[in-house]
Design a protein that fits this description.
The protein has about 290 residues and is α/β, with parallel strands linked by helices. It is built from twelve helices and eight strands. It has an eight-stranded mixed sheet, with helices on both faces.
């Protein structure tokens, strides 16, 4: 009986702008490139199972953002921790790897990083897969975002309290299991892993800084929508419909500017890969085969 093998996944570290960046890489470097951009509070760890599911056809790159995962976590005085700065490092990594054109999978924080890359060089983006990666105000679930926007508008002891709660183990677990039809499919290893990285000394201040910077992403939305209208970039939304951070209205909103967007609402939550890996991988493989033909 022939032995089934998965594509090898390499775990690499390089230096971009003097800062160490960790990334996972798999597939033939001559194949079409796909970047996987993670969200809060995780890392490229969230793509550990998706990467081999795509790497037989594509060159897959999944970096850890600065302050996350295995990438460097310089103190606040040595790195600005804005979404502009995270984008600059991501762009530098792609340049270093010689990746000129790429499709991108975005989730949570990965979305505003990808939108900035697209606005800088729209011709480089071949296709977008968004899994609970927001670009419209319709996607914000008020019960979560009211506290963040209040903190960003007037940082202080009172508004900081709920945002510090968002850095707790309880909140991290909540992100993984809320809205998932069968939470037993989600391994507790996920929130234990993420929380260990969140709990590193000084990381709380890094995350609070990014919370305060988040409104800059919303300010970009009009330009992002214009980019969608001008480019008509192929877009697939595979969205955990039970997400109480970015609700399903955020998925359907893409059709305002991309009428041909493909949208699939899944019986899952914010980290839908943990419960719907096979379905999402299937949607992506079918979508990219057509979008990149």
């Amino acid at each position: 009986m022939p032995r089934l093998t998965s594509p090898a996944v390499h775990h690499r570290t390089t230096t971009v702008n003097g800062i160490e960046v960790f990334y996972r890489e798999a597939g033939d470097p001559k194949a079409p490139a796909v970047t996987l951009l993670h969200g809060f509070p995780t890392s490229s760890h969230m793509f550990r199972n998706l990467i081999p599911a795509l790497a037989d056809r594509y060159h897959v790159i999944a970096p850890d953002h600065i302050g996350f995962g295995q990438s460097a976590m310089p103190p606040l005085q040595n790195f600005p921790y804005t979404f502009d700065a995270l984008t600059e490092v991501t762009a530098g990594l792609l340049q270093q790897l010689g990746i000129d054109r790429f499709a991108t999978y975005v989730q949570d924080y990965g979305a505003p990083i990808a939108w900035r890359l697209a606005l800088q060089n729209p011709e480089r983006i071949t296709a977008i897969i968004t899994q609970n990666g927001n670009a419209y105000e319709e996607g914000f679930v008020k019960s979560f975002w009211d506290d963040l926007f209040a903190y960003a508008a007037t940082p202080g002891p009172d508004t900081e309290v709920p945002m510090r709660k968002a850095l707790s183990l309880e909140a991290t677990r909540w992100q993984y299991v809320t809205g998932v039809a069968d939470p037993s499919l989600v391994s507790p290893d996920n929130w234990i892993h993420d929380q260990a990285l969140l709990d590193r000394p000084g990381n709380d201040e890094i995350q609070l800084k990014l919370f305060r910077d988040y409104p800059t992403n919303v300010d970009l939305y009009p330009a992002v929508h214009q980019y969608f209208r001008d480019s008509q970039v192929p877009l697939l939304a595979v969205w955990g419909a039970g997400d109480e951070i970015f609700g399903p209205d955020g998925a359907t909103a893409f059709r305002q500017d991309l009428p041909n967007a493909e949208i699939h609402l899944l019986d899952s939550g914010h980290f839908a890969l943990e419960s719907h890996l096979d379905a999402i991988a299937g949607f992506i493989r079918d979508f990219l085969a057509r979008a990149l033909a």
